[in-house]
Write a structure and sequence with these properties.
The complex is a heterodimer.
Chain A: H1 10-15, H2 17-23, H3 45-66, H4 70-97, H5 100-106, H6 111-122, E1 134-135, E2 138-139, H7 152-171, H8 177-204, H9 213-221, H10 223-237, H11 239-265, H12 268-271, H13 279-303
Antiparallel strand pairs in A: 1-2
Helix pairs in contact in A: 3-4, 7-8, 7-9, 7-10, 8-9, 8-13, 10-11, 10-13, 11-13
Chain B: H1 5-20, H2 24-28, H3 48-81
Helix pairs in contact in B: 1-3
Family (chain B): Belongs to the YOS1 family.
Signal peptide (chain B): 1-20
Protein name (chain B): Immediate early response 3-interacting protein 1
Chain lengths: 308, 82
């Protein structure tokens, strides 16, 4: 059990969430705590190292039974050790550019979480407690806390949006396979621009928050759910249904974003609803409102041309 | 509407160029956005204007040389491939 004092510094906290979650036992899942270990190879690097060390030996034994020639046996052992070295090198270098370990936290979801989160995205009015649970200074994995941001729903939503857009264009006889790529890159560029705009405004208003870039990416990706609902309703029931469902989903996303961002961006007092004067809190409130208001605008912009 | 990743790169290059051509003493000081106005308050709250000035100054300092390289590359590519 790793009960060392929480390390100082924001970056260190973010670098070690997997280690902490792996070492402490939560809910009795065996092996790694982020993912249940259903496959032979473990997801954590510790288990990966053990597997890699066992790998060449297992290959060596397999080689001995398959081929009795010692030279090919030697070649097989050498080849597998080269392969594991190469994999180590790639992992280490890739981890410098794309933080794979941080990304794994955002995909640690299960069906119950996805169901609850989708319900929350469409109907956030009854939910009372919007705080993210922390476990010794690191946020809990999404499968244990419905308020934690994840990347599974945005990723799946984006792909589904591209497919539904293709479907909608097909019903209007405007479809061609290149248009799928155009829709995908268009939506992706809008997503990137929105995340960059939010990052820029967060920098300008000097908000001390623990929202990472990936968190912002996750929050901006939640609007795809509403867009898909709107477009599917428009395809099935006509333009009026599209406008009504889009209106409902826009209002839902607006409330969802405000309630989620309020706890992260505003100071403690303002987040509890008390009226706190001062330009800083006012700026932060405006920032929260504009981030939330940008979502319905982009939702409408990306879908109105699909439903004619 | 047909945004591609290439247009994103183009936008980024153009915006960075636009920030890089803001001259310090000929333009920014004249409109009150010089470097001395940026380090005003010493409280814990720099304010939006100071943040913008800091951002402009740091972009100009950091991106000057890479922009030279990228712009030259863009010019050569556009001349060759249209």
């Amino acid at each position: 059990m790793d009960f060392t004092a929480p390390q100082s510094g924001f970056r260190q906290r973010k670098l070690h969430p997997n280690m902490r979650l792996r070492n402490s036992s939560v809910d009795g899942s065996d092996g790694s705590q982020l993912f249940e270990d259903t496959s032979g190879a473990g997801p954590g690097s510790q288990m990966g190292n053990r597997n890699k060390q066992a790998g060449p030996q297992a290959d060596a034994f397999a080689g001995q039974t398959l081929l009795s020639d010692p030279m090919s046996n030697l070649a097989m052992v050498y080849g597998s050790s080269l392969a594991s070295q190469g994999r180590d090198l790639v992992d280490r270098n890739l981890d410098r550019f794309i933080p794979i370990s941080k990304l794994k936290y955002y995909f640690a979801v299960d069906t119950v979480y996805v169901g609850k989160k989708l319900g929350l995205l469409v109907f956030p009015y009854m939910h009372q407690n919007w705080e993210v649970n922390y476990q010794q200074d690191t946020p809990v994995a999404p499968r244990f806390d419905v308020n934690a941001p994840d990347l599974y729903i945005p990723a799946m939503g984006f792909i589904t949006y591209v497919l539904v857009a293709g479907l909608a264009l097909g019903t209007q006889n405007r479809f061609s396979p290149e248009l799928l790529g155009v829709q995908a890159s268009s939506a992706f560029v809008w997503l990137i621009m929105e995340v960059l705009a939010v990052l820029l405004s967060l920098y300008l208003v000097t908000v001390n928050t623990d929202l990472t870039t990936i968190d912002l990416l996750a929050f901006s990706g939640y609007k795809y759910v509403g867009m898909i609902v709107g477009v599917v309703a428009g395809l099935l029931f006509g333009k009026l249904a599209y406008y009504l469902s889009l209106l409902w989903c826009c209002a839902a996303i607006f409330v969802f974003m405000i309630r989620t961002l309020r706890l992260k961006l505003l100071s403690e007092a303002a987040a509890e609803g008390r009226l706190v004067r001062g330009t800083r809190n006012q700026l932060r409130m405006y920032l929260t409102m504009s981030i939330a208001a940008a979502q319905p605008i982009v939702m409408y912009w990306l879908t109105y041309h699909l439903v004619r | 509407m047909a945004f591609t990743l290439y247009t994103l790169i183009q936008t980024a290059i153009l915006c960075t160029n636009a920030i890089a051509v803001l001259h310090e003493e000929r333009f920014l000081s004249k409109i009150g956005w010089g470097v001395e106005q940026g380090v005003g308050g010493f409280g814990d709250d720099p304010g939006v204007k100071a943040q913008i000035l800091n951002l402009i100054r740091s972009v100009r300092t950091v991106m000057r040389v890479p922009l030279i390289i990228v712009n030259s590359g863009c010019i050569v590519l556009l001349l060759l491939f249209g």
